[in-house]
């Protein structure tokens, strides 16, 4: 039963030593004050911020350990990068670092810690071990990798899990991510619109996000008619591996006049390989990436790319996760990918 709100204090509060004091100062119930400090989604943002600022102003910190033991909570969220498809990828990847920063900020504001893991799956139980470890209250996965079946199995019994990645038919888990197929189509349509006719896709199609980007790219090429041809180069998407694969391709094949890379990191590797081959961008080869990481605007030339709104995406991941922790319904969210035209693909 929820207690009725306490009346506002009639005078200035000089000491806040308990939740009762805080609730009285804020003019709320004790339960509302407690939920506000824990970032519970049932408290609206304006009220939560008001209570948090009041607590901060008086140096009040609830006994988190005692509260967590009572509620059987760890006050920690797991953030996992599964790498079944790309074991060489590192946490230093600029896309991952950008998303991690936004997630860390949002979770900190809710009073939660982050437990960060980079997982190379060796069997089908790695995710079971994580959710059963007792170390976390919920889990955010950055990408499905090639582990969608494993995630589906765990999501059937463990609700507080949300994935940044592609929305797949019949999946049991919730996702936030861009419409990858639409993003791939927009990249190809742009390249075709500026007169390019020999297109090359670069990416690892074993991960669902990248497979969807390739499918959208191929859709647009098919719609363009017989005058447009396209090829795809499957490669590892770490910078050095991508550069090596692209350089080898350019040695053994006629150069395309346009490249769509499944990530900005791969697109930057393409810029380097093209330059080493004596090809100019965009005069000889136009290049489009995907993600719009911060570095994309600072390459030479600046990189055209498909932007994923990571600010909105991180906020949605956190909101969906906390709804699931609270036992509330939630839905997946698909973001609209935006074409950002820069110097690497001007007509």
From TrEMBL:
Coiled coil residues, start to end: none
InterPro entries: HTH_LacI, LacI/GalR-like_sensor, Lambda_DNA-bd_dom_sf, Peripla_BP_I
Keyword check for Transcription regulation: yes
Name of the protein described by the UniProt record: Substrate-binding domain-containing protein
Domain HTH lacI-type: 17-71
This protein's record includes keyword Cell cycle: no
Protein keywords: DNA-binding, Transcription, Transcription regulation
CDD domains: HTH_LacI
Classification via Gene3D superfamilies: 3.40.50.2300, lambda repressor-like DNA-binding domains
């Amino acid at each position: 039963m929820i207690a009725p709100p306490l009346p506002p204090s009639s005078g200035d509060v000089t000491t806040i030593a308990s939740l009762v004091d805080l609730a009285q100062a804020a003019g709320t119930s004790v339960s509302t004050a407690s939920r506000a400090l824990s970032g519970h989604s049932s408290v609206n943002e304006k009220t939560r911020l008001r209570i948090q600022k009041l607590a901060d102003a008086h140096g009040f910190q609830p006994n988190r350990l005692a509260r967590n033991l009572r509620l059987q909570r760890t006050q920690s969220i797991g953030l996992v990068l599964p790498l079944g498809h790309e074991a060489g990828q590192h946490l230093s990847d600029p896309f991952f670092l950008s998303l991690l920063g936004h997630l860390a900020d949002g979770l900190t504001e809710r009073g939660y810690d982050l437990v960060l893991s980079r997982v190379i799956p060796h069997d089908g139980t790695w995710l079971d071990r994580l959710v059963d470890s007792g170390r976390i209250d919920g889990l955010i996965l950055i990408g499905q990798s090639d582990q969608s079946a494993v995630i589906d199995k765990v999501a059937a019994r463990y609700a507080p899990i949300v994935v940044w990645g592609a929305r797949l038919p019949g999946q049991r888990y919730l996702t936030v991510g861009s419409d990858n197929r639409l993003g791939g189509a927009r990249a190809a349509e742009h390249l075709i619109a500026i007169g390019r006719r020999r297109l090359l896709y670069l990416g690892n199609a074993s991960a669902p996000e990248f497979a969807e980007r390739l499918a959208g790219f191929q859709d647009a090429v098919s719609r363009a008619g017989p005058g447009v041809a396209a090829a795809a180069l499957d490669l590892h998407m770490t910078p050095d591996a991508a550069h090596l694969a692209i350089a080898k391709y350019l040695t053994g094949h006629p150069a395309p006049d346009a490249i769509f890379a499944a990530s900005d990191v791969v697109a930057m590797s393409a810029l380097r390989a093209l330059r080493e081959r004596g090809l100019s961008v965009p005069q000889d080869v136009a290049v489009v990436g995907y993600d719009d990481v911060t570095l994309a605007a600072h390459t030479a030339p600046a990189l055209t790319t498909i932007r994923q709104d990571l600010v909105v995406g991180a906020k949605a991941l956190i909101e969906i996760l906390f709804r699931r922790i609270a036992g509330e319904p939630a839905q997946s969210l698909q973001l609209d990918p935006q074409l950002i035209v820069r110097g690497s693909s001007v007509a």
